[in-house]
Predict the structure of ABC transporter ATP-binding protein.
Amino acid sequence: MTNNYTREQQHAKAPPVLECRGIERRFGGIVAVSGVDFSIHKGEIFGLVGPNGSGKTTVTNAITGFYPPNKGSICLDGKDITGTAPHKVAKLGVARTFQNLALFNGMSVLENILLGRHIHMKPGVLPTALYWWVARPSEIRNREVVEEVIEFLQLESIRNELVDGIPIGLKKRVELARALVAEPHLLILDEPMAGMNQEEKGYMARFILDARAERGISVLLIEHHMDVITGICDRMLALNYGEMIASGIPKEVVKDPRVVEAYIGGAHG
Ligand SMILES: Nc1ncnc2c1ncn2[C@@H]1O[C@H](COP(=O)(O)OP(=O)(O)OP(=O)(O)O)[C@@H](O)[C@H]1O
């Protein structure tokens, strides 16, 4: 079996997909994050942890362009994307899921997943006029990718159900499907296992590992469940009050006294 050390060494040889250097983001007088530095290599699953309010979502919002950093730089595949607009970051191959589910109630599972293909769709008068040559092949490709992801995430039996009524574990899976149909090479998952029972967590962990193995996707995983972080992440970073307190191999970082103190003595229960 491959141990964490070997996995870390393997990924360290791969080129970095994402490099965050000295990220700082302020909201008025609040310093949400400061001096955040990390990189994610190709095919790596990288954990980001910290108590509530420690700055995890702010880091992801800085990467995806929702709240650009006030200081520091972000490179994707070696290209500086600091301050790039969210839709452009998405087109560059970054997909995300949200801490609070961002599905559209009143729409089916299939319709919600199809929305994830919008960055690959070719709207406009010309593609419509040239339907058989431009729009149709792209429509066929969109359907193929969606069907393949539905099968991959075992969502076939609920594809026509409204998302409103399905259990949270499946809602989270639909969100993952919507992110995967964008065919990202960096996937940012913000608490994908929140509210799940042990069995649902196991399924989700398996899907994340398979997405990496079968699609070569790199993953930034925000999670409070430390068993998940130590179980599937290659490396991790812990934040507290917007600053880095420990980084490295998960089994070691979770034992770091600063991390233990932040979780046990800190805000997160
Ligand atoms: N849009 C905003 N406006 C003002 N303050 C914000 C904003 N977004 C985040 N903050 C503040 O920045 C700090 C970090 O918040 P952030 O949401 O990044 O933490 P988090 O680690 O993701 O927390 P949680 O685990 O609760 O999601 C907090 O003090 C928060 O109140």
